[in-house]
Amino acid sequence: MSSPQPDRHEVQIRRAPKYGRFLLVGGLLGLIVTFVLTSLYPADPNVGFGALFAYFCLYGVPTGVALGAVVALLLDRASARRSRTVAAQREAAASTEASSTEVDDS
């Protein structure tokens, strides 16, 4: 019996950024920048600091998320240029599970 020939394919290897982490970090940075900018100026006594900060978070957090997405896309494009093409080989592996034997406990 002849052994099966392994499949050989050309594949590209590159490091891609994790988009979720960039979006999360961008949102957190937007939150921090919003907090700092809100605390630099005196708050309206009728509104209060908390409400003013929450209102400006509606602008700061999405802006931070969008900037994080742009940075991730730029890094993804840069990593696509540095990708390498290598030959990959697929082989069929034998089952690693041993056949179970029945044990008679009588």
Summarize the structure.
The chain has 106 residues and is α+β, with helices and mostly antiparallel strands. The protein has helices at residues 19-40, 49-81; strands spanning 7-13, 84-90.
What is the N-to-C order of secondary-structure elements (H for helix, E for strand)?
EHHE
Largest sheet: 2 strands, antiparallel
Strand content: 5-15%
Q: Are there runs of 5+ residues with pLDDT below 50, and where?
A: none
Give helix % range: 40-55%
Number of helices: 2
The largest sheet has its strands arranged as 1-2
Description of the structure:
- The protein has a domain at 17-86.
- With 106 residues, it is of the alpha+beta class.
- The protein has a two-stranded antiparallel ribbon.
- The model has no long low-confidence stretch (mean pLDDT 84).
- It has helices spanning 19-40, 49-81; strands at residues 7-13, 84-90.
- Helix 1 runs antiparallel to helix 2.
Topology, element by element:
Elements: E1 7-13, H1 19-40, H2 49-81, E2 84-90
Antiparallel strand pairs: 1-2
